[in-house]
Amino acid sequence: VEASIPEPQRDAWLKHSAHGFTNKDGFENEVVRHVETTLARSMFNCDESAAYAACSLAFRDRLILEWNRTQQRHTFADGKRLYYLSLEFLMGRALDNAMLNIGQKDLAKSGLAELGFRIEDVIEQEHDAALGNGGLGRLAACFLDSLASLNYPAWGYGLRYRYGIFKQEIIDGYQVEVPDYWLDFNPWEFPRHDVTVDIQFYGNVRKSTNEAGKTVSNWEGGEVVKAVAYDVPIPGYATPSTNNLRLWSSKAASGEFDFQKFNSGDYESSVADQQRAETISAVLYPNDNLDRGKELRLKQQYFWVAASLYDIVRRFKKSKRPWKEFPDQVAIQLNDTHPTLAVVELQRILIDLEGLEWDEAWNIVVNTFGYTNHTVLPEALEKWSVPLIQHLLPRHLQIIYDINLFFLQSVERKFPDSRDLLGRVSIIEESQPKMVRMAFLAIVGSHKVNGVAELHSDLIKTTIFKDFVEIFGPDKFTNVTNGITPRRWLHQANPRLSELISSKTGSKNFLTDLNELNKIELHVNDKAFRKEWADIKHANKVRLAKHIKASAGIDVDPTALFDVQVKRIHEYKRQQLNIFGVIHRYLRLKAMSPQERAKQQKRVAIFGGKAAPGYWMAKQIIHLINNVGSVVNKDKDIGDLLKVVFLEDYNVSKAEIIIPASDLSEHISTAGTEASGTSNMKFVLNGGLIIGTCDGANIEITREIGENNIFLFGTLSEEVEDLRHAHTYGRHTIDPELQKVFAEIEKGTFGNMQDFAALISAVRDHGDFYLVSDDFKSYLDTQDLVDEAYRNQEEWITKCITSVSRMGFFSSDRCINEYADGIWNIEPLIPKGAA
Ligand code: Z57
User: Over 70: is that where the pLDDT of 652 sits?
Assistant: First the structure.
């Protein structure tokens, strides 16, 4: 359909084209206009939530104008685009970010003040967009920020969950999950009711012969669900480029409900059909690093992948180019294996719907996709049962079998008579039932495979994907170390530190070129600079202390060392090691004379993070932390020497308060288990130090900042296998200090010991898979070194400033440029007016 306005009328359009506000007066005009018209309120009926709504609408109007121009520019340039497919985008709040990226926060602050509002209170009104679990989802959000800021033509594709990650409440020390309904008022999305795709499920495959005498497969029957696009504008920092995040929402193909059924009296089944359709995008699966293999999850994956590919292919077909040019126009990145069906779907589109030959189609597919692996944990590697795929996606299963056949044939040609190699690398696992190994399918269907930190990329090449390195050669496998956006994680979360840094680097350029941070190292001995640095950290700690008081009711001393571990609760991340260490500290303090006690370093142990609702052990860990807190925090002998806090409902906006207030953060996973970690980067960037294992990005952080500026401990990844073996065969004794901790828990000091028996026996009786006992002593010793180092505040501040100055490498801008050059082969499209 041709929808362009004819030439003669275009002048009128240009004359009346919207421009958005350009100054404070204009901003206030827009806010009041939105209050009085869009919201149908007035100055006598305008609370903070109305101010938030009106302010957001004013900024949204500006974004959407830039968004339109950016999309026109990309279409006109007709170059290659990147599509980032992720089941999770953990965006957090949008308003503060939009104001800062557009560079109008100061204007909004004074405008809102004139209208009677404090900007901080207005920002606080916004509900987090929490469409993700943890690291993987937040990484996708940082990538979107960098892609837009670097002017890359790129889209994100995801699902518009009606419920994001659950809200966590702590009741009597236990986690309770509450649904996160976040769409009541969301000014940041634009429903595109005209952009819909019909998605097919179930049915069967019929073979027929076409006019040319060729056998073709027809996928017929089954059920159809409609995908509706919702677009979220993604503003770049200091550039007019505004990219798009397209989220799909499911609804019944017949509209509201099936009118035929409805009119014939079959109300119930017509409403049931509607509800079944809407269920697909209803809720985010709350598991981090765990695959549970549920049918609805597979439906989500296909629904999202099929809608996105339809959209991408539709856009390509408009260009009327030959199919072989598809990979010159389109790069698709698979964020983990969750979107791997896209490989199969594109092959299906090309051979079944567009009539290409298998080999020609497969070439296009492989050159289009890249696959990022985020974990080596076996329980997180996706497998789908063959019968389930057969039932839900019968044609796709046939194509998967063909992909596997041709792949195994090529392996056999290259490595004749290595029978067990074929079994090891087969995309189909010969189990009962048979399973499709999604990571293998993703590798075979992509031209590049990357890990997310150096150690992790080495590990996947030498362990889980070793055979594939032999088969495809080493060049297919690469590393792209993760990064974080300095806009949200420094400028937005820590405005005073950002200001102080710019006063020394001479500009805000470090926010777009993070290596500029190294300029502050020249000022490490500048008295006034150091004083301001310390004041900022203190102020951030005072702010967190207020939050702790308000949310947990605990008084903490802001001069104490704040020791923070905030991340998803998982045995491999070892919050249990941390809390056992806290108990040890408590017992040691209790055993001291008052005089000796008075010499000890004050500490606040701060925990936060969600446990997957079905992860019983993780819930026990939360319970133990809370029970330890309720004993320690009211112990008169201890006072301010030790406080233990569990912060409820850790999320992106809380991270923005917690991270800038940390002195020490814990990244203490069993070596080899944390693929990268990204909060480690955020903490150091905000002037905190790390206690951590030689794992994931900790290793590269050490390389960058220097080993004197980080507290490393514990066994190395090369040693893990042997140590586990020693546990299994009883050649291991539990550290005596850890035994004392266990004895105290078993005495009932922290409540009914029955509740914590499993945490203890996992270490003592069941092989200590995460090597808590092996690392305990070295952890305690290193914590003592931390106390000693913190006592020398001058040296501590030197470490912090030096570390921050050397963190440039960890910008997600560097990371995105590496993907763009090494994997996507895309170029920025720089608009006039980009800084
Ligand atoms: C997730 O958050 C990560 C990996 C996964 O396989 C899944 Br599922 C969820 C995390 C890793 O655990 C982190 O180490 C890593 O920093 C992050 O992904 C981003 O790469």
Answer: yes
Establish whether residue 696 lines the binding site of ligand 1, counting it when its CB lies within 6 angstroms of any ligand atom.
yes
Q: How far is the CA of 374 from the centre of ligand 1 (A)?
A: 5
Residue 62 is predicted with a pLDDT of 93
Ligand 1 atom with least separation from CA of 338: 8
Average pLDDT over residues 17-28: 91
Based on the domain organization, do 206 and 336 belong to the same domain?
yes
Question: Taking residues 567-583, what's their average pLDDT?
Answer: 98
Confidence of residue 257 (pLDDT cuts 50, 70, 90): low
Residues marked as catalytic: 374, 567-568, 573, 678, 682
Do residue 785 and residue 672 come from a single domain?
yes
Question: Are residues 628 and 588 both part of a single domain?
Answer: yes
> What is the CATH number for 706?
3.40.50.2000
- Give the end of a domain, one of 481, 512, 530: 481
Mean pLDDT of 498-518: 98
Q: How many domains is the chain built from?
A: 3
Residues with Cβ within 8 Å of 622's Cβ and at least 6 positions away in sequence, in order, are 170, 173, 174, 175, 569, 611, 646
CA of 481 to the centre of ligand 1 (A): 12
Long-range CB pairs of 202-208 (<8 Å, 24+ gap) are: 202/391, 202/392, 202/394, 203/394, 204/394, 205/394, 205/395, 205/398
| Cβ–Cβ under 8 Å, residues 210 and 268 | no
633 lines ligand 1 (CB under 6 A): no
- Return the pLDDT at 256: 61
Question: Which residue, by CA, sits nearest to atom 16 of ligand 1?
Answer: 677
Does residue 359 have a pLDDT over 70?
Answer: yes
Q: How many angstroms separate the alpha carbon of residue 536 from the centre of ligand 1?
A: 31
Atom from ligand 1 closest to the CA of residue 678: 16
Residue 673 domain-assigned (yes or no) = yes
Whether 136 is in the pocket of ligand 1, judged by its Cβ within 6 Å, is yes
State if residue 482 touches ligand 1 by the CB under 6 angstroms criterion.
Answer: yes
pLDDT in tens, 724-765: 999 999 888 899 999 999 999 999 999 999 989 999 999 999
pLDDT at 1 (0 to 100): 45
Cα–Cα distance, 167 to 653 (Å, whole number): 13
Q: How many A from CA of 330 to the centre of ligand 1? A: 25
More confident residue, 577 or 833: 577
**Ligand 1 centroid to residue 421 C-alpha, Å:** 29
- Verify whether ligand 1 is closer than 6 Å to residue 558 (CB atom): no
**Judgement on whether residues 67 and 83 belong to the same structural domain of the protein:** no
pLDDT exceeds cutoff 50 at 41: yes
| Single-letter amino acid, residue 707 | E
Statement to judge: residues 85 and 99 lie in one domain? no
Task: For residue 53, give its domain range.
Answer: 24-77+94-127
Residues 6+ apart with CB under 8 A from 67: 231, 233, 242, 243, 244
- Closest-lying ligand 1 atom to the alpha carbon of residue 138: 19
Same-domain pairing of 614 and 715: yes
Is residue 31 included in any domain, yes or no? yes
In this structure, the answer to whether residues 167 and 246 fall within a common structural domain is yes
Residue 155's DSSP bridge partners are: 83, 244
Is 807's pLDDT higher than 80?
yes
Same domain, 114 and 88: no
Q: ipTM, 2 decimals? A: 0.98
Q: What is the 3-state secondary structure (H, E, C) of 263-317?
A: HCCCHHHHHHHHHHHHHCCCECCCCCCCCCCCHHHHHHHHHHHHHHHHHHHHHHH
